[in-house]
Design a protein that fits this description.
This is DUF2218 domain-containing protein. Helices cover about 30% and strands about 25% of the residues. It is of the alpha+beta class. It has one domain: 2-Layer Sandwich (TATA-Binding Protein), CATH 3.30.310.
Length: about 100
């Protein structure tokens, strides 16, 4: 989870940005973006009133850590007025 002021807007911007490289989808009713980075790596981002919920699925821990950085960098870029944001990541066994 990352707290921010305009979660739906940032997800929409990411869908458009990454949509040039992969088949992203966006469900406006749920404020949900889906990002299939590769065969084993994908992210689902959901807009909440106070931030973005992020579910990141990867094949291994190293890829998970790397992709967390990629996602953080991109959200911070679009949320530049309030960046750097604070990200709260939980591993599957913690959820």
């Amino acid at each position: 989870m990352v707290k921010c002021e305009k979660p739906e807007r940032y997800i929409q911007q990411l869908v458009k940005h990454w949509g040039h490289k992969m088949a992203t989808t966006y469900d406006e009713g749920d404020g949900m973006g889906v990002f299939p980075f590769s065969e084993h790596t994908n992210a689902v981002m959901t807009a909440h009133k106070d931030g973005i919920g992020i579910t990141l699925t990867t094949a291994d821990h190293e890829e998970n850590v790397r992709m967390r950085g990629v996602i953080e960098e991109h959200i911070d870029r679009f949320a530049f007025r309030e960046a750097p944001l604070e990200y709260e990541w939980k591993d599957a066994e913690e959820a």
